[in-house]
């Protein structure tokens, strides 16, 4: 009798495979207030790849990914000039300016470009829309009232230093409850995975059916193309 596969257990959503709430104690968002604000503290969040800036405006406190070069005690503006750390609507940001934590819809608090070292660029403006050039060189168009932060997210180069020890990687994955270390499917027993057992390792790639259950939906899922690529 077979066992529950890892992908089935993860899909079930038990506490074993659910990220811990304390990892996400800081919620990144934008306030509705406008005016001058102050960076109270730069905090470390296990769930984010960049340090977060704790910012206070009037009597309201919010968290935003820290811009490169931002320091504690620095004053920023919400709706002011296009300077590092300031938060502006896309229509007020000059062309070729680097931005991050961009709203997809006006008022959603920022959804894109939040990882350490990332940024996008304002490329064009027309008919109430603003063109954003992504790091992949793909251009998207958003409403001009969506907000973004000026600058580049701090934490660039975090992957330059090698992990070196498996123990460090274990702690990094543990903070977000990621599945690590991952066992290769062909090393499992036949009852634990469709690719398991020592037989048939030179078979063709498996293309999973769209309606396959979680335990059987393995291999190539919705591939754009199959077969050898002709040169």
Description:
- It is built from 2 helices and 10 strands, in the order αββββββββββα.
- With 231 residues, it is mostly beta strands.
- The protein has a domain at 21-150: SH3 type barrels.
- The strands form 2 sheets. A 6-stranded antiparallel β-sheet has the order 5-10-6-7-8-9, with no helix packed on it.
- A hairpin with a 5-residue loop joins strand 8 (129-133) and strand 9 (139-143).
- The protein is globular and about 65 Å long.
- The model has no long low-confidence stretch (mean pLDDT 89).
Observed structural traits:
globular, 7% helix, single chain, four-stranded antiparallel sheet, 231 residues, SH3 type barrels
SSE blueprint:
Blueprint: H1 6-12, E1 35-43, E2 52-57, E3 60-65, E4 75-78, E5 87-89, E6 98-100, E7 120-126, E8 129-133, E9 139-143, E10 147-150, H2 166-175
Antiparallel strand pairs: 1-2, 1-4, 2-3, 5-10, 6-7, 6-10, 7-8, 8-9
> How many strands?
10
Give the low-pLDDT segments.
Answer: none
Distance between the termini: 46 Å
Strand/helix succession: HEEEEEEEEEEH
State the CATH architecture of the domain at 21-150. Roll
CATH topology of the domain at 21-150: SH3 type barrels
**Which CATH first-tier class of the domain at 21-150 would you pick?**
Mainly Beta
Residue fraction in strands: 15-25%
């Amino acid at each position: 009798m077979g066992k529950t596969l890892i992908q089935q257990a993860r899909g079930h959503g038990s506490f074993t495979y659910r990220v811990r709430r304390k990892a996400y104690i800081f919620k990144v968002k934008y306030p509705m207030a406008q005016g001058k604000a102050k960076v109270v503290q730069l905090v470390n969040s296990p769930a984010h790849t960049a340090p977060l800036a704790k910012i206070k405006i009037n009597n309201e406190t919010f968290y935003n990914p820290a811009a490169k070069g931002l320091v504690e005690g620095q004053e920023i503006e919400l709706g002011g000039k296009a300077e590092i750390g300031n938060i502006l609507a896309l229509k007020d940001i000059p062309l070729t300016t680097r931005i991050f934590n961009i709203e997809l819809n006006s008022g959603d608090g920022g959804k894109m470009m939040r990882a350490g070292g990332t940024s996008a660029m304002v490329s064009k403006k027309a008919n109430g829309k603003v063109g954003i050039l992504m790091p992949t060189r793909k251009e998207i168009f958003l409403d001009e009232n969506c907000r973004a932060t000026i600058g580049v997210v701090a934490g660039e180069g975090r992957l330059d230093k090698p992990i070196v020890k498996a123990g460090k990687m274990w702690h990094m994955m543990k903070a977000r409850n990621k599945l690590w270390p991952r066992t290769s499917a062909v090393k499992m027993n036949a009852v634990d995975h469709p690719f398991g057992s020592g037989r048939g390792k030179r078979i063709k790639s498996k293309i999973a059916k769209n309606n396959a259950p979680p335990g059987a939906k393995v291999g190539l899922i919705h591939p754009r193309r199959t077969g050898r690529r002709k040169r």
